[in-house]
Amino acid sequence: MRHSIVAGNWKMHKNALETEDLLNELIEKLPTDKEVEIIVAPAFTNLSSAAQHLEYTNIGVAAQNMHQAEGGAFTGEISASMLTSIGVNTVILGHSERRHYFNETNAVLADKVNTAMKHEMRVIFCIGEELKDRQTKQHFNVIFDQLTDGLFHLKKENWEQLVLAYEPVWAIGTGETATPEQVQEMHAYIRNQIARKYDESVAENISILYGGSVKAANAKEIFSQIDVDGGLIGGAALVADDFARIVEAI
Ligand code: 13P
Predict the structure, then answer these.
(1) pLDDT tens digits for 26-49?
(2) What is the distance in A from the centroid of ligand 1 to the CA of 11?
(3) CB-CB contact of 64 with 43 (8 Å)
Protein backbone atom coordinates (compact mmCIF):
# COMPACT_ATOMS: atom_id res chain seq x y z
CA MET A 1 0.00 0.00 0.00
CA ARG A 2 1.33 3.44 -0.91
CA HIS A 3 2.72 5.16 2.16
CA SER A 4 5.57 7.43 3.23
CA ILE A 5 8.98 5.87 3.65
CA VAL A 6 12.36 7.35 4.52
CA ALA A 7 15.20 4.88 4.10
CA GLY A 8 18.89 5.36 4.82
CA ASN A 9 21.33 3.54 2.57
CA TRP A 10 24.53 3.43 4.56
CA LYS A 11 26.56 1.98 1.67
CA MET A 12 30.07 0.85 2.74
CA HIS A 13 30.17 3.06 5.81
CA LYS A 14 30.19 2.36 9.55
CA ASN A 15 31.94 -0.58 11.20
CA ALA A 16 30.32 -2.56 14.02
CA LEU A 17 30.96 -0.02 16.77
CA GLU A 18 30.05 2.93 14.62
CA THR A 19 26.86 1.18 13.56
CA GLU A 20 25.85 0.68 17.17
CA ASP A 21 26.58 4.32 17.97
CA LEU A 22 24.57 5.61 15.02
CA LEU A 23 21.64 3.31 15.82
CA ASN A 24 21.59 4.55 19.41
CA GLU A 25 21.58 8.12 18.21
CA LEU A 26 18.81 7.40 15.73
CA ILE A 27 16.66 5.73 18.39
CA GLU A 28 17.07 8.83 20.50
CA LYS A 29 16.55 11.42 17.77
CA LEU A 30 14.12 10.04 15.22
CA PRO A 31 10.52 11.13 15.63
CA THR A 32 8.09 8.44 16.75
CA ASP A 33 4.89 10.32 16.08
CA LYS A 34 5.06 10.63 12.28
CA GLU A 35 3.16 8.52 9.82
CA VAL A 36 6.25 7.30 8.07
CA GLU A 37 8.09 4.03 7.76
CA ILE A 38 11.75 4.44 8.66
CA ILE A 39 14.35 1.98 7.37
CA VAL A 40 18.12 1.79 7.66
CA ALA A 41 20.39 -0.38 5.52
CA PRO A 42 23.73 -0.99 7.26
CA ALA A 43 26.50 -3.23 5.89
CA PHE A 44 25.97 -7.01 5.79
CA THR A 45 28.35 -7.59 8.71
CA ASN A 46 26.20 -5.42 10.97
CA LEU A 47 22.75 -6.43 9.76
CA SER A 48 22.11 -9.13 12.31
CA SER A 49 23.06 -6.98 15.28
CA ALA A 50 21.17 -4.01 13.81
CA ALA A 51 18.02 -6.12 13.37
CA GLN A 52 18.23 -7.18 17.03
CA HIS A 53 19.07 -3.70 18.24
CA LEU A 54 16.06 -2.21 16.44
CA GLU A 55 13.59 -4.99 17.20
CA TYR A 56 11.36 -2.98 19.54
CA THR A 57 11.74 0.36 17.78
CA ASN A 58 9.93 2.01 14.86
CA ILE A 59 13.02 1.61 12.67
CA GLY A 60 13.22 -1.25 10.18
CA VAL A 61 16.27 -2.85 8.62
CA ALA A 62 17.08 -3.58 4.98
CA ALA A 63 19.99 -5.22 3.17
CA GLN A 64 21.78 -3.29 0.44
CA ASN A 65 22.04 -6.22 -1.95
CA MET A 66 21.58 -9.96 -2.24
CA HIS A 67 22.53 -12.76 -4.65
CA GLN A 68 19.93 -14.28 -6.94
CA ALA A 69 20.87 -17.93 -6.30
CA GLU A 70 19.38 -19.93 -3.44
CA GLY A 71 22.89 -20.92 -2.40
CA GLY A 72 26.01 -22.52 -3.81
CA ALA A 73 29.58 -21.81 -4.79
CA PHE A 74 29.40 -18.01 -4.94
CA THR A 75 32.24 -16.88 -2.74
CA GLY A 76 31.49 -13.69 -0.89
CA GLU A 77 27.81 -13.57 -1.71
CA ILE A 78 24.70 -13.46 0.52
CA SER A 79 21.44 -15.31 -0.17
CA ALA A 80 17.83 -14.41 0.50
CA SER A 81 17.42 -17.06 3.18
CA MET A 82 20.55 -15.81 4.97
CA LEU A 83 18.81 -12.45 5.24
CA THR A 84 15.36 -13.64 6.25
CA SER A 85 16.88 -15.99 8.83
CA ILE A 86 18.26 -12.97 10.71
CA GLY A 87 15.00 -11.06 10.47
CA VAL A 88 15.86 -8.94 7.45
CA ASN A 89 12.93 -9.04 5.05
CA THR A 90 13.63 -5.98 2.92
CA VAL A 91 16.38 -5.66 0.34
CA ILE A 92 17.56 -2.79 -1.85
CA LEU A 93 18.16 -4.05 -5.39
CA GLY A 94 19.41 -2.30 -8.50
CA HIS A 95 21.22 0.55 -6.83
CA SER A 96 23.19 2.43 -9.49
CA GLU A 97 26.45 1.64 -7.69
CA ARG A 98 25.62 -2.07 -8.05
CA ARG A 99 24.67 -1.55 -11.69
CA HIS A 100 27.82 0.39 -12.54
CA TYR A 101 30.62 -0.95 -10.37
CA PHE A 102 29.42 -4.55 -10.21
CA ASN A 103 27.88 -4.86 -13.67
CA GLU A 104 24.40 -5.76 -12.48
CA THR A 105 22.28 -5.76 -15.61
CA ASN A 106 18.52 -5.47 -15.80
CA ALA A 107 18.42 -9.22 -16.50
CA VAL A 108 20.43 -10.08 -13.37
CA LEU A 109 18.27 -7.71 -11.37
CA ALA A 110 15.11 -9.36 -12.65
CA ASP A 111 16.49 -12.67 -11.31
CA LYS A 112 17.29 -11.08 -7.97
CA VAL A 113 13.80 -9.61 -7.75
CA ASN A 114 12.29 -13.04 -8.49
CA THR A 115 14.35 -14.66 -5.75
CA ALA A 116 13.39 -11.98 -3.26
CA MET A 117 9.69 -12.38 -4.17
CA LYS A 118 9.95 -16.12 -3.75
CA HIS A 119 11.22 -15.54 -0.23
CA GLU A 120 8.42 -13.06 0.41
CA MET A 121 10.91 -10.27 0.85
CA ARG A 122 10.12 -6.68 0.09
CA VAL A 123 12.27 -5.07 -2.59
CA ILE A 124 13.29 -1.44 -2.79
CA PHE A 125 14.12 -1.34 -6.50
CA CYS A 126 16.30 1.51 -7.71
CA ILE A 127 16.15 3.03 -11.16
CA GLY A 128 17.81 6.12 -12.55
CA GLU A 129 19.45 7.62 -15.58
CA GLU A 130 22.99 8.89 -16.05
CA LEU A 131 23.85 12.48 -16.88
CA LYS A 132 24.53 11.66 -20.53
CA ASP A 133 21.05 10.14 -20.78
CA ARG A 134 19.46 13.33 -19.55
CA GLN A 135 21.67 15.50 -21.74
CA THR A 136 20.66 13.49 -24.79
CA LYS A 137 17.02 13.45 -23.66
CA GLN A 138 17.08 9.67 -23.28
CA HIS A 139 16.17 9.70 -19.58
CA PHE A 140 12.59 8.53 -20.02
CA ASN A 141 13.73 5.72 -22.33
CA VAL A 142 16.34 4.55 -19.84
CA ILE A 143 13.79 4.46 -17.03
CA PHE A 144 11.32 2.69 -19.29
CA ASP A 145 13.89 -0.03 -20.08
CA GLN A 146 14.84 -0.44 -16.42
CA LEU A 147 11.18 -0.88 -15.50
CA THR A 148 10.41 -3.17 -18.43
CA ASP A 149 13.45 -5.43 -18.16
CA GLY A 150 13.73 -5.43 -14.38
CA LEU A 151 10.12 -5.51 -13.18
CA PHE A 152 7.45 -5.73 -15.84
CA HIS A 153 7.61 -9.54 -15.97
CA LEU A 154 6.14 -9.58 -12.45
CA LYS A 155 2.56 -10.46 -11.71
CA LYS A 156 0.27 -7.74 -10.46
CA GLU A 157 0.18 -9.17 -6.94
CA ASN A 158 4.02 -9.09 -6.71
CA TRP A 159 3.83 -5.31 -6.77
CA GLU A 160 2.57 -5.34 -3.19
CA GLN A 161 6.11 -6.40 -2.26
CA LEU A 162 7.76 -3.58 -4.16
CA VAL A 163 8.90 -0.06 -3.42
CA LEU A 164 10.57 2.02 -6.16
CA ALA A 165 13.38 4.49 -5.72
CA TYR A 166 14.12 6.95 -8.51
CA GLU A 167 17.76 7.93 -8.15
CA PRO A 168 19.22 9.91 -11.03
CA VAL A 169 22.87 8.85 -11.09
CA TRP A 170 24.07 12.41 -11.67
CA ALA A 171 22.51 13.47 -8.36
CA ILE A 172 23.99 10.70 -6.20
CA GLY A 173 26.74 11.85 -3.87
CA THR A 174 27.33 14.90 -6.04
CA GLY A 175 25.49 17.50 -4.01
CA GLU A 176 23.45 18.09 -7.14
CA THR A 177 19.75 17.42 -6.65
CA ALA A 178 17.16 17.05 -9.33
CA THR A 179 14.76 19.99 -9.16
CA PRO A 180 11.39 19.25 -7.53
CA GLU A 181 9.88 19.65 -11.02
CA GLN A 182 12.27 17.10 -12.54
CA VAL A 183 11.54 14.69 -9.69
CA GLN A 184 7.78 15.08 -9.98
CA GLU A 185 7.93 14.74 -13.77
CA MET A 186 9.82 11.45 -13.56
CA HIS A 187 7.76 10.03 -10.70
CA ALA A 188 4.57 10.80 -12.62
CA TYR A 189 6.09 9.17 -15.72
CA ILE A 190 6.96 6.04 -13.72
CA ARG A 191 3.48 5.82 -12.23
CA ASN A 192 1.98 6.31 -15.66
CA GLN A 193 4.03 3.49 -17.17
CA ILE A 194 2.96 1.18 -14.36
CA ALA A 195 -0.68 2.11 -14.96
CA ARG A 196 -0.27 1.34 -18.67
CA LYS A 197 1.40 -2.00 -18.04
CA TYR A 198 -0.83 -3.07 -15.15
CA ASP A 199 -3.64 -0.78 -14.03
CA GLU A 200 -4.38 2.37 -12.05
CA SER A 201 -4.60 0.57 -8.73
CA VAL A 202 -1.07 -0.90 -9.04
CA ALA A 203 0.24 2.53 -10.03
CA GLU A 204 -1.57 4.26 -7.18
CA ASN A 205 -0.48 1.73 -4.57
CA ILE A 206 3.25 1.76 -5.19
CA SER A 207 5.45 3.97 -3.02
CA ILE A 208 8.03 5.82 -5.13
CA LEU A 209 10.96 7.31 -3.25
CA TYR A 210 13.41 9.87 -4.54
CA GLY A 211 17.14 9.50 -3.92
CA GLY A 212 20.07 11.70 -4.84
CA SER A 213 21.54 14.31 -2.50
CA VAL A 214 18.44 14.61 -0.32
CA LYS A 215 19.40 16.81 2.62
CA ALA A 216 17.52 18.36 5.52
CA ALA A 217 17.46 21.62 3.55
CA ASN A 218 15.78 20.27 0.41
CA ALA A 219 13.75 17.33 1.76
CA LYS A 220 10.53 19.21 2.40
CA GLU A 221 10.27 20.59 -1.11
CA ILE A 222 11.02 17.23 -2.72
CA PHE A 223 8.66 15.30 -0.43
CA SER A 224 5.84 17.75 -1.14
CA GLN A 225 5.62 16.65 -4.78
CA ILE A 226 2.45 14.64 -5.24
CA ASP A 227 4.08 11.55 -6.71
CA VAL A 228 6.95 11.44 -4.21
CA ASP A 229 6.37 9.13 -1.25
CA GLY A 230 9.63 9.68 0.58
CA GLY A 231 13.34 9.29 0.08
CA LEU A 232 16.27 6.92 -0.15
CA ILE A 233 19.03 8.83 1.58
CA GLY A 234 22.79 8.29 1.26
CA GLY A 235 25.27 10.65 2.90
CA ALA A 236 22.75 12.48 5.08
CA ALA A 237 21.57 9.16 6.56
CA LEU A 238 24.94 8.77 8.28
CA VAL A 239 24.37 11.78 10.53
CA ALA A 240 21.58 11.20 13.04
CA ASP A 241 20.53 14.86 13.27
CA ASP A 242 20.34 15.21 9.50
CA PHE A 243 18.42 11.96 9.03
CA ALA A 244 16.01 12.96 11.81
CA ARG A 245 15.37 16.31 10.12
CA ILE A 246 14.72 14.55 6.81
CA VAL A 247 12.21 12.24 8.51
CA GLU A 248 10.59 15.30 10.09
CA ALA A 249 10.21 16.81 6.62
CA ILE A 250 7.86 14.08 5.43
P1 13P B 1 23.31 10.61 -1.56
O2 13P B 1 22.12 10.99 -0.72
O3 13P B 1 24.61 10.56 -0.80
O4 13P B 1 23.39 11.42 -2.83
O5 13P B 1 23.07 9.08 -2.04
C6 13P B 1 21.84 8.73 -2.54
C7 13P B 1 21.81 7.25 -2.67
O8 13P B 1 22.54 6.67 -3.44
C9 13P B 1 20.88 6.50 -1.81
O10 13P B 1 20.78 5.18 -2.21
Answers:
(1) 999 999 999 999 999 999 999 999
(2) 9
(3) yes
